[in-house]
Amino acid sequence: MSEAAGHELSHLSPAASRLGGAFARPKVIAVVCVIALAGLGWFYLGLQAAGISALDALCQAMAPSAAGVTGIALVALMWGAMTLAMMLPSAAPMILTYAEIADTAARKGEPVVSPFMIAVGYTAVWFGFAAVATLAQFVFTRAALLNSSMASASSLFSGAIFIAAGVYQFSALKHACLRQCQHPFPFFFANWATTPRGVFRLGVRQGLYCLGCCWAMMLVMFAVGVMNVIWMAAIGMVMAIEKIGTSKRFTYSIGVTLIVAGVTFLLSALAAHWPGRII
C-alpha cells in the first residue's frame, strides 16, 4: 500500500481503516467478485429450478408462438445466469493471477485498476455468447429440436451435439485457447494496462480465449436439457479442471467420452426407427 493511502487510512476509525485496507488489495476484490457473481448466477438458477410456476412460465415463453420480447428476455436472463454460474469459477485462476500482479504493483505505489474491470470484460464476452445461445434456442424450438421443457426432442440432434463437442476437444484451436487460459501470467506481463479501459480489454481478450476453449462444451446443454442443474455443475467442473493446467490426456479423454455418448444417441435413434424392430 502506498504512503499516501496509509496516511489517509490513519485518519479513519479502526473499523473503517481495516475495511479500507482490505479493499485496497486487488486480490480481496477479485475473490469477492468471483464468489459474488458466480453465486448470483447459481442463486438465480436455483430459484428457477425450485420455482415450478416460474419454470412453467419460462417453458411457455419458449413456445414458438410466444417468442415475443418477454420470452426472449426470460431466456436471455437464464442463459446469462448460466454463464455467470458456469464460467466465472473456471476464470478464477485468471482473475486471481491479475489480482496478484496488481497487488504487487499496489504495494509499490504503482497505479492499478480493480480486478472488477477484468471480470466485467470477461463477463461481457460470455453475455454475448448468452445472446447468441438465446437466439439459437428459439431456432431449435421452432425446428422442433427442443421441446417445451427446453430438453432435446431428437436423439439425432443430441448425438450430433455430443459428437461435435467431442471432436472439438482434439482441435488445434481448442488447445491454443486452452493454453492461454491455463497460463495467463505471460499474457498479462506482455499486455499490462493501468487504465480501466485497458484492463477491460484484457478481460475481453481473456474472455475470447475462454470462449474459444469452452463454447462447444456449453452447447452440450442443448442436448441434455438447458435447465439441467446437475449437468451445469458437471460441465462447469470439467471446464474448471481443464483450466487448472491438466495434461492433454484429460482433454482428450473428455473428447472420447463425448463422442462415445454421441454415438450412443445416434445408435439409439437408428434402433428406434429400424424396420421390424421389436416393441
If you had to describe this structure to a student in words, what would you say it looks like?
- With 279 residues, the chain is an all-alpha fold.
- It has twelve helices and no strands.
- It has helices at residues 3-9, 14-23, 26-50, 52-61, 69-107, 115-142, 155-168, 172-182, 184-191, 196-224, 229-245, 248-272.
- α5 (69-107) packs antiparallel against α6, α7 packs antiparallel against α12 (248-272) and α8 packs across α11.
- The protein starts with a helix and ends in a 7-residue tail after the last helix.
Summarize the structure.
The chain is mostly helical and 279 residues long. Helix content is 80%, strand content 0%. The protein starts with a helix and ends in a 7-residue tail after the last helix.
User: What's the gyration radius in Å?
Assistant: 22 Å
Q: Please indicate the percent range of residues in DSSP E strands (runs of 2 or more).
A: under 5%
| Overall number of structural domains | 1
Q: What level of helicity do the residues show?
A: over 70%
Which structural class should the secondary elements be placed in? mainly alpha
Outline: globular
The ordered H/E elements are HHHHHHHHHHHH
Give the averaged pLDDT, no decimals: 79
Major sheet description: none
Q: What is the assembly state of the chains in this entry?
A: single chain
**Unreliable sequence segments:** 1-27
The rounded distance between the terminal residues' Cα atoms is: 74 Å
Number of strands: 0
Counting DSSP H or I runs of 4 or more residues, the number of helices is 12
